[in-house]
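Ex. 9. Protein: Cytochrome c.
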Amino acid sequence: MKKLLLGMCLAFMVLLAAGAGVIYSGVVSVAADDPHGSWVHGILETARERSIESHASDIAAPPLDDEAMKVAGAGNYASMCASCHLAPGMQETELSKGLYPSPPNFVSSDMHGEPEERFWVIKHGIKASGMPAWGKSMQDEYIWQMVAFMQELPDMSAARYTALVAASDGHQHGGGETAQSPSSHHDDDTRQPHHAREADGPADLQDSHEPEGSHEPKENHEPKDSGRAEDHPHSSHDAEHQH
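Predicted structure tokens for Cytochrome c:
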């Protein structure tokens, strides 16, 4: 018996050392464009689904059929989710194509899981997947609004999506984010195909990448008739610093 236990311990140590050697050698690819093998993918998918089920089991969803909740959730979805999970009438984006694991497309296929599970995922995120933990800056009521909106996504038309986003208050979730009107840039961005938006030019890119909370009241305003930019070579430089 002692020899058997000793042999098992030695075998375990050899396997452990071999595994450590493989990991340390760098031969294991971590590239996002080199997918896991089917068995690794199966293990990770099972672990993810069971973990979400377990952690969301004690959550009770509020009523989610209220139209006002869907309207409020639409603005946040357009700003925070559409670039990865897409929206009705929206083409694939660089993010949705480049991330691995690929973010689920909530438009072209039914969403798996219960509303409570979607709430948990939005709030806590998923490790090593590109899915953020929005609960660090987003209050629960706003997460439920997004869940209510997402319930309808698989059957939602592009016109319905556009109307809901336009009727919303934009990007607002009680976490210190920049308040935006429905006509702001994120609304237009999520309704247009990704590559079509790239043609909008540097001005749109500058607006779309401003940090949250970076909008400050402007103390100095140039008169509308202050002259052409050619007559004031420093005007464009000053304008950049105002943003």
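Check your answer against this statement. DSSP finds twelve helices and no strands in the chain.
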